[in-house]
Amino acid sequence: TRFNQLRDMISSIQTDVSYQVVAVSFMDIPEDIPCIRIKEESARGCTYAFNQGLIFAQSPYLIHVNDDCRFMPNAIDIMLQAIGDRDVLGAFAVKEPDTDGFVVRQLWNKYYANFGCAKKSLFEKLGYFDAVNFPHYGLDPDLAMKCYQAGYSVIPVMSAKIIHHCVVDEFRKEHLRESASVSLVSKWKGIFC
To answer: b/e string for 138-165 if b means 16 or more Cβ within 10 A?
Structure first.
Protein backbone atom coordinates (compact mmCIF):
# COMPACT_ATOMS: atom_id res chain seq x y z
CA THR A 1 0.00 0.00 0.00
CA ARG A 2 0.99 3.64 -0.27
CA PHE A 3 1.24 3.77 3.52
CA ASN A 4 3.90 1.06 3.52
CA GLN A 5 5.75 3.19 0.96
CA LEU A 6 5.43 6.20 3.27
CA ARG A 7 6.76 4.19 6.23
CA ASP A 8 9.76 3.06 4.17
CA MET A 9 10.46 6.59 2.92
CA ILE A 10 10.43 7.98 6.47
CA SER A 11 12.66 5.17 7.75
CA SER A 12 15.20 6.02 5.02
CA ILE A 13 15.75 9.52 6.42
CA GLN A 14 19.21 9.88 7.96
CA THR A 15 20.16 13.39 8.97
CA ASP A 16 21.81 15.34 11.77
CA VAL A 17 19.23 18.14 11.59
CA SER A 18 15.81 18.12 13.19
CA TYR A 19 13.01 17.61 10.70
CA GLN A 20 9.30 17.01 10.33
CA VAL A 21 7.47 14.92 7.77
CA VAL A 22 4.17 16.37 6.60
CA ALA A 23 1.99 13.84 4.79
CA VAL A 24 -1.09 14.95 2.88
CA SER A 25 -3.72 12.41 1.88
CA PHE A 26 -7.43 12.06 1.26
CA MET A 27 -7.15 8.65 2.98
CA ASP A 28 -6.71 8.26 6.73
CA ILE A 29 -2.99 7.91 7.47
CA PRO A 30 -2.39 5.21 10.10
CA GLU A 31 -1.41 6.48 13.54
CA ASP A 32 1.79 4.41 13.66
CA ILE A 33 3.36 6.46 10.87
CA PRO A 34 5.54 9.21 12.42
CA CYS A 35 4.34 12.28 10.55
CA ILE A 36 2.14 15.34 10.68
CA ARG A 37 -1.11 14.49 8.91
CA ILE A 38 -3.12 16.78 6.67
CA LYS A 39 -6.42 15.30 5.55
CA GLU A 40 -7.75 16.29 2.13
CA GLU A 41 -11.49 16.21 1.59
CA SER A 42 -10.99 14.68 -1.86
CA ALA A 43 -8.15 13.69 -4.17
CA ARG A 44 -7.14 16.90 -5.97
CA GLY A 45 -3.82 15.73 -7.35
CA CYS A 46 -0.33 15.40 -5.94
CA THR A 47 0.61 19.00 -6.74
CA TYR A 48 -2.14 20.40 -4.54
CA ALA A 49 -1.07 17.98 -1.79
CA PHE A 50 2.59 19.00 -2.12
CA ASN A 51 1.62 22.65 -1.80
CA GLN A 52 -0.48 22.01 1.29
CA GLY A 53 2.43 20.22 2.96
CA LEU A 54 5.02 22.80 1.95
CA ILE A 55 2.90 25.72 3.14
CA PHE A 56 2.11 24.00 6.44
CA ALA A 57 5.70 22.92 7.21
CA GLN A 58 7.46 24.94 9.91
CA SER A 59 11.04 24.69 8.73
CA PRO A 60 13.46 27.08 7.03
CA TYR A 61 14.23 24.39 4.40
CA LEU A 62 11.73 22.26 2.52
CA ILE A 63 12.14 19.01 0.58
CA HIS A 64 9.47 17.56 -1.67
CA VAL A 65 9.47 13.81 -2.34
CA ASN A 66 6.97 11.10 -3.15
CA ASP A 67 6.13 8.35 -0.70
CA ASP A 68 7.82 5.79 -2.98
CA CYS A 69 11.23 7.48 -2.66
CA ARG A 70 14.12 6.35 -0.49
CA PHE A 71 16.89 8.68 0.66
CA MET A 72 20.38 7.30 0.35
CA PRO A 73 22.62 7.76 3.44
CA ASN A 74 23.35 11.41 4.28
CA ALA A 75 21.45 12.71 1.23
CA ILE A 76 19.68 15.41 3.22
CA ASP A 77 22.82 16.65 4.99
CA ILE A 78 24.72 16.71 1.69
CA MET A 79 21.91 18.69 0.06
CA LEU A 80 21.64 21.22 2.89
CA GLN A 81 25.39 21.78 2.81
CA ALA A 82 25.32 22.27 -0.98
CA ILE A 83 22.58 24.90 -1.01
CA GLY A 84 23.68 26.64 2.18
CA ASP A 85 21.97 29.98 2.70
CA ARG A 86 21.53 30.70 -1.01
CA ASP A 87 18.25 31.17 -2.83
CA VAL A 88 18.67 28.14 -5.09
CA LEU A 89 16.65 25.02 -5.77
CA GLY A 90 18.80 21.95 -5.10
CA ALA A 91 18.12 18.93 -7.30
CA PHE A 92 18.69 15.48 -5.82
CA ALA A 93 20.29 12.87 -8.09
CA VAL A 94 17.55 10.30 -8.67
CA LYS A 95 17.67 6.65 -9.69
CA GLU A 96 14.48 5.45 -11.36
CA PRO A 97 13.64 2.19 -13.15
CA ASP A 98 14.28 3.85 -16.55
CA THR A 99 17.70 5.35 -15.69
CA ASP A 100 21.17 3.88 -15.65
CA GLY A 101 22.45 5.18 -12.35
CA PHE A 102 21.61 8.42 -10.58
CA VAL A 103 20.71 11.42 -12.75
CA VAL A 104 19.47 14.98 -12.45
CA ARG A 105 16.94 15.46 -15.21
CA GLN A 106 16.97 18.32 -17.69
CA LEU A 107 14.37 20.01 -19.84
CA TRP A 108 15.47 22.31 -22.65
CA ASN A 109 19.08 21.96 -21.46
CA LYS A 110 18.15 23.26 -18.02
CA TYR A 111 18.29 21.24 -14.82
CA TYR A 112 15.13 20.69 -12.85
CA ALA A 113 14.56 19.12 -9.45
CA ASN A 114 12.58 15.93 -9.91
CA PHE A 115 12.82 15.98 -6.12
CA GLY A 116 14.26 19.11 -4.63
CA CYS A 117 15.21 21.17 -1.63
CA ALA A 118 15.09 24.92 -1.13
CA LYS A 119 14.59 27.50 1.57
CA LYS A 120 10.93 27.97 2.39
CA SER A 121 11.32 31.64 1.54
CA LEU A 122 12.24 30.68 -2.06
CA PHE A 123 9.13 28.50 -2.39
CA GLU A 124 7.12 31.48 -1.12
CA LYS A 125 8.74 33.86 -3.63
CA LEU A 126 7.99 31.45 -6.49
CA GLY A 127 4.40 30.83 -5.41
CA TYR A 128 4.96 27.11 -4.78
CA PHE A 129 3.89 24.58 -7.44
CA ASP A 130 1.35 25.39 -10.16
CA ALA A 131 -1.50 23.07 -9.14
CA VAL A 132 -3.88 24.52 -11.73
CA ASN A 133 -1.87 23.69 -14.87
CA PHE A 134 0.08 20.74 -13.44
CA PRO A 135 -2.15 18.85 -10.97
CA HIS A 136 -0.34 15.50 -11.37
CA TYR A 137 2.76 15.74 -13.58
CA GLY A 138 5.06 18.50 -14.80
CA LEU A 139 5.16 20.35 -11.49
CA ASP A 140 8.93 19.82 -11.06
CA PRO A 141 10.14 21.24 -14.40
CA ASP A 142 7.56 24.02 -14.16
CA LEU A 143 8.93 25.09 -10.76
CA ALA A 144 12.45 25.08 -12.20
CA MET A 145 11.39 27.28 -15.12
CA LYS A 146 9.83 29.69 -12.61
CA CYS A 147 13.18 29.72 -10.77
CA TYR A 148 15.13 30.54 -13.91
CA GLN A 149 12.62 33.17 -15.01
CA ALA A 150 12.88 34.89 -11.60
CA GLY A 151 16.70 34.89 -11.77
CA TYR A 152 17.35 31.97 -9.41
CA SER A 153 19.35 28.82 -10.12
CA VAL A 154 18.68 25.10 -9.99
CA ILE A 155 21.81 23.29 -8.89
CA PRO A 156 22.39 19.57 -9.39
CA VAL A 157 23.75 17.87 -6.28
CA MET A 158 24.99 14.56 -7.62
CA SER A 159 26.14 13.24 -4.23
CA ALA A 160 22.68 13.77 -2.64
CA LYS A 161 20.88 10.67 -3.88
CA ILE A 162 17.33 9.35 -3.86
CA ILE A 163 15.93 6.12 -5.26
CA HIS A 164 12.47 6.57 -6.76
CA HIS A 165 10.64 3.28 -7.13
CA CYS A 166 7.90 4.73 -9.40
CA VAL A 167 5.21 2.52 -7.88
CA VAL A 168 2.43 1.98 -10.38
CA ASP A 169 -1.03 1.98 -8.87
CA GLU A 170 -4.39 3.67 -9.32
CA PHE A 171 -2.82 7.06 -8.54
CA ARG A 172 -0.19 7.01 -11.31
CA LYS A 173 -1.95 7.66 -14.59
CA GLU A 174 0.40 7.85 -17.55
CA HIS A 175 -2.02 9.70 -19.85
CA LEU A 176 -1.78 12.66 -17.47
CA ARG A 177 1.98 12.83 -18.11
CA GLU A 178 1.35 13.51 -21.82
CA SER A 179 -1.07 16.31 -20.97
CA ALA A 180 1.54 17.88 -18.65
CA SER A 181 4.14 17.83 -21.44
CA VAL A 182 1.78 19.75 -23.69
CA SER A 183 1.07 22.22 -20.89
CA LEU A 184 4.80 22.78 -20.24
CA VAL A 185 5.47 23.60 -23.88
CA SER A 186 2.42 25.86 -24.01
CA LYS A 187 3.37 27.76 -20.84
CA TRP A 188 7.07 28.17 -21.56
CA LYS A 189 7.17 28.26 -25.37
CA GLY A 190 9.20 31.18 -26.59
CA ILE A 191 10.93 31.58 -23.23
CA PHE A 192 12.88 28.36 -22.80
CA CYS A 193 11.90 26.22 -25.77
So the answer is: bbbbbbbbbbbeeebebbbbeebbbbbb
52's CB contacts (< 8 A; 6+ apart) are 24, 38, 40
Q: Are 185 and 138 in contact (CB under 8 A)?
A: no
- 151 closest CA partner among 122, 193, 181, 118: 122
Helix%, strand%, coil% for the chain, nearest 5: 35, 25, 45
Question: Residue 19: how many CB atoms within 10 A of its CB?
Answer: 12
Tens-place pLDDT, residues 73-114: 999 999 999 999 999 999 999 999 988 899 999 999 999 999
DSSP string over 110-125: EE--SSEEEEHHHHHH
The order of strands in the sheet holding 153-164 is: 61-64, 116-119, 88-95, 153-164, 69-71
- In the chain, the amino acid numbered 113 is A
182, 188 Cβ separation under 8 angstroms? no
What is the three-class DSSP state of 67? coil
Which pTM does this prediction carry?
Answer: 0.92
DSSP structure class, residue 103: B
